[in-house]
Amino acid sequence: MIVKVLNNWYSGSNKLERLWLLAKIEFKLRYYENKLGVFWALLKPIMDIGIYYIVFQVIMKQDVPAFASYLFIGLIIFNFFIESTSGTIQILNTKKYLYEYSNMNKLEIYMSTLLSNVIGFSFNILMFLLYYNFIEPQSLGSNVESLWMFPIFINVFILSLGVSLILSNIFVIAKDINQIWQVFATCLFFLSPVFYKLSSFKEALPNFDYANPIAGIIINARRVMMQGIQPDFELMFFDFGYALSFLFIGLILLNKLGSKAAEKL
């Protein structure tokens, strides 16, 4: 069943070229009517960092070394996950014309949407590297361990795709999943070490970094990007396990519910 879904997506020509074209169009349309255009893709995380920095470093005094960079890497990973999942809940409805009146596979539509978020994520990672290496006064600098960020990002991409498939297919039969996910996403944000000191997070929620894949991904991203050490491989194993499990469930739902989406929506 799962192999059939993947084979249907892969069959045909120019898949990657079409995916990239759709991703670029999606990214540009997102900011088309804004005066600042795609600059908002960079401006929003910077504004978020400013707000959280004032609240948690100036007012609450978290006492985290290189706190602005600590916030930066946590926010861009969490925001990628939330934008990729929340933005695709109604995708089978809003982009019904693509799979009804063209030869596009449904999975291809998901992939192109997530790839458009990858473009914004790439801008943010570049900004982080520039800030951390040239502006951050407490920077240790980047080294070869930073290359571990590639498999870490693949982890969060697979996780986002899996959760997107699950949520959007549940939406076919239960529209209130949108509101439920908004509440859950808020809880997930405050139960992840985005702005908390890691020691405080682990003390308050022992072993919760193994139960929350986003927490584990953020922790490992900071290890390789800011501390210059290898990721926690046990934690990474758990995170990839979550991601692949969600993807497996999502593909099953896409095969079962997604095939009837055009009739039900």
Describe this protein's structure.
- The structure is a single chain.
- The chain has one domain.
- The protein is built from 14 helices and no strands.
- It has helices at residues 2-10, 15-30, 40-59, 67-86, 91-94, 96-100, 106-134, 149-173, 177-190, 198-204, 208-211, 213-227, 233-256, 261-264.
- The mean pLDDT is 84.
- Belongs to the ABC-2 integral membrane protein family.
Distance between the termini: 24 Å
Q: What is the number of beta strands?
A: 0
What value does the average pLDDT take?
A: 84
The largest sheet is: none
What share of the residues does DSSP label as strand, in percent? under 5%
| N-to-C SSE string, H for helix and E for strand | HHHHHHHHHHHHHH
Number of helices: 14
Low-pLDDT runs of 5+ residues are: none
By secondary-structure content and strand pairing, the structural class works out as: mainly alpha
The global form is globular
What percent of the residues sit in helical stretches (DSSP H or I)?
over 70%
Number of structural domains = 1
Q: Cα-atom Rg, whole angstroms?
A: 19 Å
Core attributes:
mainly alpha, 265 residues
